[in-house]
């Protein structure tokens, strides 16, 4: 990982592990603080379109969300302390709702890290199964499932995931994502 000392440690040290401690439980107050962090995300016209379906390990909601995960995610996500589905209404031509949901999930993720927890966001799940299984109203879409929990032992993961777990956290250079003047012209900060 390239060091960026100007960044807050909560951002610099954040990562998306797959190794979760299967014994550790999430305290209800901690879960509330994570959801409060999401609740206070910026929102155009204060619409607050985000909704969350929260399952704590071993409850029925967790089991239902787990069952909707893609098989590859099921190999590790069952050890998380919580599985949280991030949902928002879908309105044709509305580009802000998904953006705002992302902001809320981002704030939840940073709060989790501040609490000593980790979040792994997943797109590999059956959104229709989530909607049907939990009575999600028409017009809402499940965008992501978040595994939240305490870091576990990498050695307990399947071998092919162990390598990914210890790989360096990499990001594109700033010159490839921030432009000025015209597309592809790197920002000269």
UniProtKB/TrEMBL annotation:
It comes from the Bacteria. GO terms for molecular function: oxidoreductase activity. The keyword DNA-binding does not apply. InterPro entries: Nitroreductase (IPR029479), Nitroreductase-like (IPR000415). The keyword Cytoplasm does not apply. Residues 12-68, 70-149 form the Nitroreductase domain. Keywords: Oxidoreductase. Pfam families: Nitroreductase. Belongs to the nitroreductase family. This is Nitroreductase. It comes from Motilibacter rhizosphaerae. The lineage of its organism: Bacteria, Bacillati, Actinomycetota, Actinomycetes, Motilibacterales.
